[in-house]
Amino acid sequence: MPLGYHVFVADPVPLQVNEQVPNGEPRRFSPLSVTLIHGDRDAVLVDPPLTRDQAEEVAVWIQKSGKNLTHIFATHGHGDHWFTAGMLAERFDAQVVATAGTIEQMRRNVAIRAVFWDKLLPGQIPDAPVTATVPDGNRLDLEGHQLLIVEVGHSDTDETSVLHVPDLDLVVAGDVIYNGVHQFLVESKDGGIDAWREAIDIVESLRPRFIVAGHKNKDLDDDAQRAISQTRRYLDTVDELLAEHETALGFFDAMLERFPALLNPGALWGGALALRPPPRTHP
Predict the structure, then answer these.
(1) Distance in angstroms (rounded) separating the CA atoms of residues 169 and 163
(2) CA dihedral sign, ordered 109, 115, 120, 121
(3) Nearest Cα to Cα of residue 98 among 48, 27, 41, 43
(4) For residue 208, which of 75, 171, 187, 255 is within the disulfide window of CB 3.0 to 4.6 Å?
(5) pLDDT tens, per residue, the chain with 283 residues
(6) pTM score, two decimals?
(7) Is 262 helix (H, G, I), strand (E, B) or coil?
(8) How far apart are CA 127 and CA 276, in angstroms?
(9) Residue 164: how many other CB atoms lie within 10 Å
(10) Burial class of 4 by CB neighbour count within 10 A (0 to 12, 13 to 18, 19+)
(11) Which residues pair with 43 in a beta bridge?
(12) What percent of the residues of the chain are helix, what percent strand, and what percent coil, each to the nearest 5?
């Protein structure tokens, strides 16, 4: 039987941050893409969401599909792409899998959870022990079809991967590729942008027709070339405008002028502060 895929986009959730974005928008999380790849009976879920409420919505969505969920795969270690994996795995008796590098990054995100994730979303994230294992050969079998885990290195964080589904000409790209949403730049210093470009090159070499980006405007399609081009152009513009602006606000405003239609400028503002931190004041 042929494979198919469906995407659930979890809407942005407000963050517990008092400071607004300089353009007046509230601080909120970017929309999150959750992908269900399915055959006739079974299915694999990619990148479960962040909060309990989002996971409940995804659980109802899976149940309505009528498919038997066998595996849950996390593309990388950022908590918004796996913190509800255990909750969903228990609900559907599925196995959580990831690469060895991603599992290490999962542990890092658990270590910073109290001072980062829980401060942003107090009381909204379930218990999230790291239970993922590495699948044999970095691949999954779905009713005789091979789903290939491809490690790509650094994108918007370290040790990221994508899931290549050759029979669908599909790559589920996690945060390597963005689609209509401002990119997370906080971990892009010290060569991170160049490394991200190399990760994009690997995805493009797989020659997909369709890409599901980890953060996606749900009104946009999954055209691979458009999403790849947009993600590259964004990084090129970051390099260009960082060279022209010495302050976070100057860089932020210039990026908004270039990309007025992208969702969640708050993600850009966080990156601006990381790439152009304000000078320290001495008492």
Answers:
(1) 11
(2) positive
(3) 48
(4) 171
(5) 799 999 999 999 999 998 889 999 999 999 999 999 999 999 999 999 999 999 999 999 999 999 999 999 999 999 999 999 999 999 999 999 999 999 999 999 999 999 999 999 999 999 999 999 999 999 999 999 999 999 999 999 999 999 999 999 999 999 999 999 999 999 999 999 999 999 999 999 999 999 999 999 999 999 999 999 999 999 999 999 999 999 999 999 999 999 999 999 999 999 999 999 987 765 5
(6) 0.96
(7) coil
(8) 34
(9) 22
(10) middle
(11) 38, 69
(12) 35, 25, 40
**Phi and psi for 126 in degrees, rounded to 5?**
-75, 170
CB-count exposure of residue 40 (10 Å: 0-12, 13-18, 19+): exposed
CA distances from 143 to 11, 53, 63, 138 (A): 31, 31, 19, 17
β-strands 145-153, 160-165 pairing: antiparallel
Instruction: Give the ranges where the chain is alpha helix by DSSP (H).
Output: 52-65, 85-92, 100-111, 117-120, 192-205, 224-242, 248-258, 265-275
Residue 255 near residue 48 (C-beta atoms within 8 A): no
Residues pairing with 172 in the sheet: 163, 212
Tokens linked to 280: 């320290």
Pull the structure tokens for residue 273. 């502060």
> Across-strand partners of 210?
170, 223
Stretch (H or E) spanning 43: strand 42-46
What size, in residues, is the chain?
Answer: 283
Please report, for the chain, how many H helices and E strands are present, in that order.
Answer: 8, 10
Six token digits for residue 200: 């994009």
C-alpha closest to that of 33 among 200, 190, 227: 227
